[in-house]
Amino acid sequence: MTLPRLALFQLRRDRWQLLIWIAGTAVLAGAASAAVADEFAAEQDRRAFVTVAAASPAVLFLRGTPDGADVGALVFFQLFAFLGVMVGLMTTFLVVRHTLPTRRPAGPNCSPPPRSADPPP
Q: What's the pLDDT score for residue 27?
């Protein structure tokens, strides 16, 4: 199999999980951006928030420097760290799912997996 065929197989296998993750992240980002735009509707409120955020070293460390006081810059400032964490979790879950070995079912008729440390008979 070639690499594109393997990639298509993995995408087909994970199509519902990816769809749910991407749609959920998009819905949360849309709701949060609407909330930020509603909360900081006045220019004066946005400037005060940016001033406080720029003065805090902890906020600067976690979110970076604010890029201005308009609504788009404030939405980006509020959501970028959250979206980065969501994408990181999604990719971690997908990588772990595809790299773990297949587990054997446990039951009375299943023999335990062979142990490499057993001495020869």
A: 93
